Amino acid sequence: MKRNKLVWSSFCVVMLTSLAVTGTLQAAEIESSIARGAKLYDKWYKVIDVDAPTESHSLYPPDKAYAEKPGSNWRCKECHGWDYRGRDGAYASGKHSTGIPGIDGTAGASAESIIATLKADTHGFGKLLSGPDFTDLANFVSKGQVDMDASIDRAYRDRGKGPLLRLPGSGPCRYRVPGRAASLTNLAGRLRIQSSCAAGV
């Protein structure tokens, strides 16, 4: 009887450990997919190592600043914004303004619906991206958007020197990304920050 209990207990421990490891691996795979999707959102053709399209995107307004620059107007972030808010965010005005809505309304949407939109003739990515590319981009759009206003202080953005960031627990201090403004979809992986407290900003 004791032996049966010991065998059963051992079996349960092995099964629970296996489930925990599987869950951890799945979570890591989703996080990896979202991170790659963010890079695709920023500059997909660089991620998949192909040349940028040579003709402008059909949805990019012909009277806007990057109408003659396919390498720019085929980037998701160029129309929908680095803050995901498109015409209602940082690109509401200025040279990046297009009047195109952001993707913030698609946060939480199904991957299938996002992929269908990307493959539709209007967006035109059907023959440009692979299955894993679509999955990663859809995972980012659905599950990877963050509230940029929680990290970036728009009122104190220092043009040309990078955005000022508020970090959790930093109190009144802000932090600057040195050099020109970094690509915000890649920011987490390459932050080298300087404290505004030390700089007296």
UniProtKB/TrEMBL annotation:
Under the heading InterPro entries, the entry gives: Cyt_c-like_dom, Cyt_c-like_dom_sf
Family annotation (SUPFAM superfamilies): Cytochrome c
User: Which terms does the record give in the GO molecular function aspect?
Assistant: electron transfer activity; heme binding; metal ion binding
Q: Which PROSITE patterns does the record associate with it?
A: CYTC
Question: Metal-binding: is it a keyword of this entry?
Answer: yes
Keywords of this protein's UniProt record, alphabetized? Heme, Iron, Metal-binding
Q: Which residues form the Cytochrome c domain?
A: 32-145
Q: Does the keyword Heme apply?
A: yes
* The protein's name: Cytochrome c domain-containing protein
Query: Origin organism of this chain?
Result: marine sediment metagenome
